[in-house]
Amino acid sequence: MSDVKEITAKRKAEGDVKQRPEKVSKGKKWQTPKKSQTDSTDSGTSKYQIEEGDAGIWATCERGREAKCVGELRDLLEQYATSPEEDAADERTVEKVVIAPAEDIEAELKQEVSALKTRRQTQFRNIKIDIQCLLFMTTPANIDPVTLVHDICKDSVTNARRKRGRWIKRLVPITLMGKATEKGLTETARKVLEPHFHAEGTETKKFAIRPSIRAHDTLGKKWVIDTIAQLVGPRHSVNLKKYDCLIVVEIYKAMCGMSVLSGDYDELKKYNLSELYNPAPQKAEEGVVPEKT
User: Fold this and answer.
1) Between β-strands 134-138 and 125-127, what pairing exists: parallel, antiparallel or unpaired?
2) DSSP result, the chain
3) How far apart are CA 123 and CA 39, in angstroms?
4) Mean pLDDT over all residues of the chain?
5) For strand 237-238 and strand 255-262, is the pairing parallel, antiparallel, or unpaired?
6) Which among 228, 232, 226 is positioned nearest to 198, based on CA atoms?
7) CB 232 within 8 A of CB 249
8) What are phi and psi of 117, to 5 degrees?
9) Are 61 and 69 within 8 A, CB to CB?
10) What tens digit of pLDDT does each residue of 62-85 get?
11) Rounded to an integer, what distance in angstroms lies between the CA atom of residue 86 and that of residue 70?
12) Which of 30, 37, 40, 107 is the most exposed place for a label (fewest CB within 10 A)?
């Protein structure tokens, strides 16, 4: 009888062992990369961040249209950054390569791809912004964002029927980005203001300062305005309405950007493309976080 009990207990123990779940491997599991680690320009998401020394363009759009605005803005900037002469040169290069003799189809295809790669790369790069209706796109070193945006807005006035933007609202070009600290803003201002106010032979000018502060609580508007006015110097005078130059300051989180715009800024509807294409009065841009007062 005792033998039967031992056999029964043994079988029961073996059954318990079989029912035990297998141990999970301690090896590293494959993880899906986070959205912040990918670069999907179509969705408006980017792994890149705004860095000191960057130049670029801020743009606003309607809520929920950020992804469409990214593609639309890039196409618009590429169009204006590439001259007709360069387009013609690229076409001639492609034609020349296509008709060139090749040993086989594969070699001919490689030649065509190589020719297309010689096309001018402007490399406008979208930066992820944690505010709805707002985006930032960097510009390469060989392109002046201030001139580029001004050309787009001027052309919008002279060719208002050729509407080139459906989702883009306001554009704000930035000549230089720096740290949003007292030292960083001062250094950035000196570099940006120098050619406009302190270069040899510069005439006296009337200027205005318009700062915008988002997601930042260290530097105040008054301090920013007073500091920049001191850096401009007493040789030039302040005129908030009839100015020759407008100093734009955009502060976002830990970064500050600055540029000097021409005196027709208000005439060009503050670089608001929707206002330039549709002059009728419109409501304030929906969803844009108001700047700090």
Assistant:
1) antiparallel
2) -HHHHHHHHHHHHHHHHHHSPPPPP-SPPP-PPPGGGS-BGGGTB-S----TT--EEEEEE-TT-HHHHHHHHHHHHHHHHS-HHHHHHHHHHHHHHHTS--SSHHHHHHHHHHHHHTS-----EEE--SSTTEEEEE--TTS-HHHHHHHHHHHHHHTTTS---SSEEEEEEESEEEESSHHHHHHHHHHHHIIIIISTTPPP-EEEEEEEEES--SS-HHHHHHHHHHHH-TTSEE-SSS-SEEEEEEEETTEEEEEEEETTTTTTGGGBHHHHH--S--PPPTTPPPPP-
3) 14
4) 79
5) unpaired
6) 232
7) no
8) -70, -15
9) yes
10) 999 999 999 999 999 998 887 544
11) 24
12) 30
Helix axis angle, 66-81 to 145-158, nearest 10°: 90
How far is Cα 208 from Cα 199, in angstroms, rounded to an integer?
A: 19
Flag whether pLDDT at 44 surpasses 50: no
Number of Cβ atoms within 10 Å of the Cβ of 78: 14
pLDDT of res. 89: 47
Q: Which amino acid is at 123?
A: Q
Per-residue pLDDT, 118: 43
Q: Pairing relation of β-strands 237-238 and 206-214? A: parallel
Which pLDDT score, from 0 to 100, does residue 109 have? Answer: 75
Its pTM stands at 0.70
Residue 171 has what pLDDT? 96
CA distance 46 to 59: 16
Cβ 32 vs Cβ 139: under 8 Å: no
Q: Are 59 and 69 in contact (CB under 8 A)?
A: yes
